[in-house]
Amino acid sequence: MKDVKENLAFIQGQIAEACERSSRNPEDVHIVAVTKYVSVERAAEALEAGIQNLGENRAEGLLSKWEVLKDRPLWHFIGTLQSRKVRNIIDKVEYIHSLDRLSLAKEINKRASKKIKCFIQINVSGEESKHGLQPEDTVEFIRQLEAYENIEVVGLMTMAPHTDDEEVLRTCFRRLRSLKEEVEGMGLKHAPCHELSMGMSNDFKIAIEEGATFVRIGSALVGE
Predict the structure, then answer these.
(1) Which residues does the record list as N6-(pyridoxal phosphate)lysine (modified residue) (predicted)?
(2) What number is the average pLDDT over the span 165-189?
(3) Which side of the chain, N or C, has fewer Cβ within a 10 Å radius?
(4) Can you give the pTM of this predicted structure?
């Protein structure tokens, strides 16, 4: 298995190229290392290589790594979050990438002792296997979140279809960007919505060209 430092240097090069193609600044793109399939030692290696953001998609996985790494990284919860598990992770995470229902918003708001940066998960592709709001329900949902003082809507998140068809991927990412710009343009205090969490190991270069500010990279960075 290649060391994380090597992988990171290669990925940073790819990010720089994608930013050059789309006239963007690489400093505006944040890498979230997805460590759900790797050991805590491998996650620590990512931190030593210079990664600041670690993403976990299960509460148990996050808690077991947090026991060792504590608050060295900024923790991102990137998977489907069950309301009953919010209390276990809420004081450990900086970002939640998967807010998609009011029952979850209520629980986050109740349990949090500080503002939690939330991405609203949107099911842009319309696949039944994926979680998230329908695009047309996004604006109304975000308006309702104004009632929850511990939630800040920093942006939108989606998972693109698993495909090599570049046009399908671009269409998905563009649709999310367009929705983000719509919310951003509303000027809501509780929902600045400047960020886009989209793109994974297989499609992050395309996501960056289409405006991603957070890319969630697992296998290409830390391995399986």
Answers:
(1) 36
(2) 97
(3) C
(4) 0.97
